[in-house]
Amino acid sequence: MRxxxxxxxxxxxxxxxxxxxxxxxxxGVGIAMHGEAKYKTGFTHFDYVxxxxxxxxxxxxxxxxxxxxxxxxIIRGVPAAGVGAIYDTLMEASRDEPFSEYGLVAESIEVxxxxxxxxxxxxxxxxxxxxxPMTVEDVIFSFDILTKKGAPFYRAYYASVAKVExxxxxxxxxxxxxxxxxELPLILGQLPVLSKAYWEKREFDKxxxxxxxxxxxxxxxxxxxxxxxxxxxxxxxxxxxxxxxxGTNNFDVIRYDYFRDETVLREALKAGDLDFRAExxxxxxxxDYDIPEVKDGLLILKKFPEHRGEGMQAFVFNTRKPMFxxxxxxxALGYALDFEWTNKNLFYGQYVRTKSYFANSELASSxxxxxxxxxxxxxxxxxxxxxxxxxxxxxxxxxxxxxxRPGLRxxxxxxxxxxxxxxxxxxxxxxxxxxxxxxxxxxxxxxxxIVLPFVxxxxxxxxxxxxxxxxxxxxxxxxxxxxxxxxxxxxxxSLSPGNEQREFWTSAAADEKGSRNTxxxxxxxxxxxxxxxxxxxxRESLVARTRALDRVLLWHYFVVPNWHIPYDRFIYWDKFGxxxxxxxxxxDFTSWWIxxxxxxxxxxxxxxxxxx
Length: 612
Fold this sequence. Notes:
20 helices
């Protein structure tokens, strides 16, 4: 462990190095996507953590269903919850900026003005859990193995890297292919550093239940396959006094227990067998925690505001299927979702309708395009739906009574225009003469009650829908193979979208099994817009280009948008301490700690109220 004074000395040395960097380049401890990074050389910790948070204690968390792998980097298998905590990355992102990163394994980052390459200088004290140093060779190996044998995500994410080379004893340089890609230095900062010596002896693209060699703040302590996994804090974690790590990872032991479904998991939480949960179901938040422990203030329900952007959750059409290739058909089927009734009767009025792929952020399109966004879209006139330039995108709004006849009339008109006919109450395919029929594939039992009203409304259009619930392994395999008609899917979006958009929307990703382009989008305009986002020279330009992409995706009706809330719902036993400030991207549970005074008081009261 390096003394804190040594950390400050290294920071001062980096400041001197920055001034000596070759002309036209930047060298420092942090980098922002656009503009300047908030934290400067010599910072000691992020503002949203308690740098003096006490360490210790055990927390119990829950996870649904099962797991069968400890390798989170491949598409095979279902990785264990929390396994990412055993790895360190080159840089660490802050949660109180749109997109900035600061050195973790890397003590400095260097980029030229045009960001055509990036170089990272590694900290000499960086270590794997077995005590071996983290080297440039490990970084190069990590990049190569992830792009060759890792999930398709990595190939798309790092597609613009032309060359990786060792340029000094502790320095690795990534050179980029021609073209503007200002985000690439930052996303390479997210690269997990894997041990070359460890993985060269093993098959990286196979699932494994052997605890891998890591480098992060936690290591795997025990595994009960499919049932539980326990992590133990690394006592002499090499980075525990680094500015990016101080005040975080405060629990000594983190245990995840697996439960058959979310309902059983919630019962375990209420019984005191679990300590914390981020609640994702409106009904459960509204009615499932009406118990004495909540009323007595022992079990706390609290909303934490966040402004990180909600992305898009939706009913996702697989446009590779013939019945979903026509935009008019996809738009028509969307009229069958009665959000107002669903929100009132199933969600207790907690949600708002999602109307953007970048909801709850300045990146979301609205109204009519103006300024730079309009200029961008004008270039594609005739290649995008005309409404992109002439109409505000809206979704059906009903009165909450369950009567959606006005919407169904519009849907019938669209289907008729697309050539479909109704015979004896059945919607007939003009090409095959068969009824429009498809499968709604689910993995979460909780979604059945949400999907069924939508299915019933589709039946009013003469559509036959089969709802099928499958186990996680089968579901993941079918999603990887694009073997589905409709699913509940989603794309989480940051405040600084970039290279990950390739895997979400581009033509190349549509044919790569396991990619996040579940829709099957193949559109040259979308491909160009994604490239423009990646090359955005400023924050203002990024916002305009992202809004343009958002608008084009929306008007293609690739999905039936669902809903979101602009806050996190946490439920936890009153044993935790937490920083006073909540960062813009939402509450950071890794910066919480166990308050021993609260824990003792809780344990004194629990025997009288605990539900067994």
